[in-house]
Amino acid sequence: VHLCDFPTANAAARDLALEKEIAIVQRIVALGRVPRKGHLKIRQPLAKAVVFCGENAKFNSESVQMISEELNVKFVEFVTEPSLLSTTSLRPNFKVLKPKFGAQMRDAIAAVNALSAEQAYSLSCHNDIMVSSEITLTYDDVLIDRAPKEGLVVETEGDLIVGLETALTPELIAEGNAREFVSHVQSMRKEADFEVTQRITVAVKADAEMKAALEAHMDYVKNETLATEVTITEGAGDIDLNGHKTAIEVKANA
């Protein structure tokens, strides 16, 4: 291999449209993970992600599935109006306007206050707005306030807005508890230095809510942990799984 020539790329084989689509998908995923840090764990499934990335943006089913999996949401909704995610309002940035416009500062302030919703959004995306032959507003001329719609946490980057629906149903909470359990068992496997393919048995003591969550998602738990048997009894332990005091014992199969 080391003596072979590096292969020559076939430029004609590139799918530029697909490359552009995947680049946007990567931006959506990166932006959608930001609200998780201050609100919900990435292992907690959510009902929906709402995305605005321009009126003409289109994604194939594989890209939508990728976004859904990476953001751990059940559904991805694309909207063509940014106002469906948040309300954007602009305030004059006096520190910038005064040295920039001098005697015309009052006219510039009036121009900021008179911007339409469409102009305000365009300016918030770093697009200059020419108000008159003498006044052109730029992104730095304003201070931007964004208020997310009720039930959403929202992050914005230029012309891209991603919102996550925060309401949790009992079913979503149960799935989140099962995922948290699997994560902890995986850590126990690693600490025990089990082989990657090692089958195990798991004994659990948990409260009624955690017990019900594990029973509802037993196939997922077994597949992810390679457990041939998971026995669950009601009780408590020293392991805190989303506020549920749980005891877990893991044994390698003979």
Broad shape = elongated
Q: Work out the radius of gyration.
A: 26 Å
State the helicity in percent bands. 25-40%
Tell me the total number of β-strands: 12
Oligomer: single chain
Strand order, largest beta sheet: 2-1-8-7
Helix/strand order: HEHEEHHHEEEEEHEHHEEE
Estimated structural class: alpha+beta
Classify the beta-strand content into a percent band: 25-35%
Mean pLDDT: 92
The residue ranges in which pLDDT falls below 50 over 5 or more consecutive positions are: none
Structure description:
Helix 1 runs parallel beside helix 2, helix 6 packs across helix 7 and helix 6 (170-191) packs parallel to helix 8. This protein starts with 15 loop residues before the first helix and ends with a strand. The longest helix has 23 residues, at 16-38. The chain is an alpha+beta fold and 254 residues long. Helices cover 39% and strands 28% of the residues. The model has no long low-confidence stretch (mean pLDDT 92). The radius of gyration is 26 Å and the shape is elongated.
Compact overview of the structure:
The protein is α+β, with helices and mostly antiparallel strands and 254 residues long. Helix content is 39%, strand content 28%.
List the helices and strands and how they pair.
Blueprint (H helix, E strand, L loop, with lengths): L15 H23 L7 E7 L8 H11 L1 E6 L7 E7 L1 H8 L3 H9 L3 H8 L4 E2 L5 E2 L4 E7 L3 E6 L2 E6 L4 H22 L8 E7 L1 H9 L1 H8 L1 E8 L4 E3 L2 E9 L2
Parallel strand pairs: 1-2, 9-10
Antiparallel strand pairs: 1-8, 3-6, 4-5, 7-8, 9-12, 11-12
Helix pairs in contact: 1-2, 6-7, 6-8
